[in-house]
User: Fold Ribonuclease Z from Dysgonomonas mossii DSM 22836.
Amino acid sequence: MEKFELDILGCGSATPTTLHNPSSQVLNIRDKLFMIDCGEGTQLQFRRSKLRFGRLNSIFISHLHGDHCFGLIGLISTLGLLGRTGDITIYSVAGLEEILRPEIDFFCKDNPFQVKIETFDPKKSEVIYDDRSVSVTTIPLKHRVPCAGFLFREKQKEAHLIPEMIKFHNIPIRDLANIKKGADFITEEGKVIPNSHLTTPSEPARSYVYCSDTAYNEKIVPIIEGVDLLYHEATFVDEDAARAKATGHSTASQAAQIAKLANVKKMMIGHFSARYPDNQILLDEARKVFPNTILANEGLREKL
Assistant:
């Protein structure tokens, strides 16, 4: 099975601590790297995770709070120093162009590649990226500033041919492509050989959702229904629910309730407030509602 794995580069909230870096993740889909948010220090964590800068395909910025985008200019500068020539695209809410472009023009004017910035409407759920391997759909979130999550959905691969059956029925090469797509085979005598006799199903397509930052919001449930892995911010414990509401964040149990309502297979919580020296308290609260929950942590590589 080809790669579909998540690297956590940072899972803290606004204030960096000795425990956590600001938000950033990398999703590896069939050896193409998709970065999600880029807080301060991201490029160092990228190196520590032994990821390859040359494989970085696109960057997705959820919103324009510094702990989610302060690392961009440093990363772009490093890509230039490493000799990157291929353009890179950043997908973001409106406003990033005005913030980032002057920095690029000043610090990275000699870079041999272009930084393209594509904006999306955080109030809509729409496909903003699509290739042969994956599509990326935005998820409107509820925060103090315009903010969106991202749904990464792998494309279903074609069925696998059964070589022995292909040979037995003497099927011409010209028909194999259609058979992989689900077609039956009809012999010269008119006999129908069912596709199920000629192929085995490919591995199920995988899916990942990133939701940070957001207050409790049941409107996202239909969009994320049944995904393999949900990353949902869990900045606060229930005791600090009033603080969560005031700042547009979620508690661990609220995140778990979203996972439960959406019937996701697994949840990962992150974006931890610096006020908690031990994140186990967040995990315990989440697991009371949704048992299949894990903690994000720098250096974690989760394979789907």
Q: What stands out?
A: The two ends are 10 Å apart (CA to CA). The chain has two domains: 4-157+203-303, 160-200.
